[in-house]
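Work Package 3 (structural annotation) set out to generate three-dimensional models for the target panel prioritized at the project kickoff. During this period the team completed the workflow that converts sequence records into discrete structure tokens, so that structures can be stored uniformly alongside our sequence database. As a representative example, we reproduce one entry of 277 residues exactly as it appears in the project archive.
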Amino acid sequence: MTVATVAAEGEFRIGQVINRASKVLIANFWFFFVVMVVASLPDVIFSKPSPSPSETGAYNYAITLILQLVVMLVAGVIGQAIVAGSALQYLRGEPVRLGGVFNQALARFFPLFGTTLILMVLVVTLVVGGGLVAVPFVLPHTSPISTVLVMALVLCGFLLNAAAAILLTRWAVSWLACLAEETGPIASLGRSSHLTKGYRWKILGLVLLTIIVSAGGGAIAEFVMGLTGNASANVIGQLLIRGGANAFATCISILIYHDLRAAKEGIASKEIATVFD
């Protein structure tokens, strides 16, 4: 069985996605690793302590924070697009054409950026909102009315976070649809909703896995390398660990998209992502 082999039409298996994502990563490890290390560079640099709003002024602090987020998003979008294009070519059993991959990543940058930004803004808004409405839960409350109100707010916070998880699941492959099928941001979100329908519990598990791998890899890197006490070793170590973790998480996302198209549409690997030819 080759890496490109998929289940019969209508089937989508978590174990198969993880297994084949691992094989794709191993087969292209050094290229994917280097790309994601470079893409993770702004994240590592900007994670260092910066002046507080009281030192720089609220306006300057906000502008700096926004610019940092934009740079991190740009690097992440381009890095993931390069890895995705290369992985999809590999799954088609063809040699990776770096020229085609880079050209497609750059050509699709703005739609990809828009798709990612929409998803990120909505999900972050829901998660932050869920956290804010649950704040009264930790405050003193003695009367029955205040207790009921607090519980209602906690429930509201839970529902907002559940809504964020639903959006992450529905739109899990929106950026890949945008890249491989050359759709716009809104169409990509709709395309992802169509592909994920009927498989969302499985996809939720895989999405949580990618979040755990990426976030966990970053947290572990920061903790372990922080023990060295050497700033340079800290940065290098974080880059290496984050690069590997993000490469694997990206491969998981790619295989989700690849296998969803095969399961729902019966499309063979060679028919996917012909835009890179």
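Residues 14-276 form one domain.
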